[in-house]
């Protein structure tokens, strides 16, 4: 059985996760309630991607806030080399348990679609994103395991492990753990990300 707590101990590959063929069919979280999902999430583990600077991005926070009309705001931040970097943007519900985020980098906007696969709203969440490249007939996958705090309790770990073990589209070996130690989260400077990063979700 795969265990979530080992992610932080595994030296995961740093390359983006890419497979042949189109994006697979997925099952979004049934009866998704965005008002319950909004708020702050801590990224426990993720598929590596350039948007979080490979393995460098630590102490990652994602904040979702809804305006009440199926739209809202999103802010993402992480710490790299004692600098807290952040990007903000808009979001809107774009389908069952799916959010379209529009992040702005120095005046240039980038859209991305993120689907919540599973969550209990108050403890854990598993999110997924897939982008298809028809020219090369391949798709790029991203996934995040998140918590309402900087740790996951035993019951939440069991729920996440159970979902991952049953999943046919997620590979536990691709996840890399985050770091919320005081040293990793220490930041002497806060800086907005202004350079366009096309792979930042």
From TrEMBL:
Belongs to the calycin superfamily. Lipocalin family. Residues 38-169 form the Lipocalin/cytosolic fatty-acid binding domain. Keywords: Disulfide bond, Signal. The gene is LOC106120062. It comes from Papilio xuthus (Asian swallowtail butterfly). InterPro entries: Calycin, Invtbrt_color, Lipocalin_ApoD, Lipocalin_CS, Lipocln_cytosolic_FA-bd_dom. The lineage of its organism: Eukaryota, Metazoa, Ecdysozoa, Arthropoda, Hexapoda. Gene3D superfamilies: 2.40.128.20. The keyword Lipid biosynthesis does not apply. This is Insecticyanin-B.
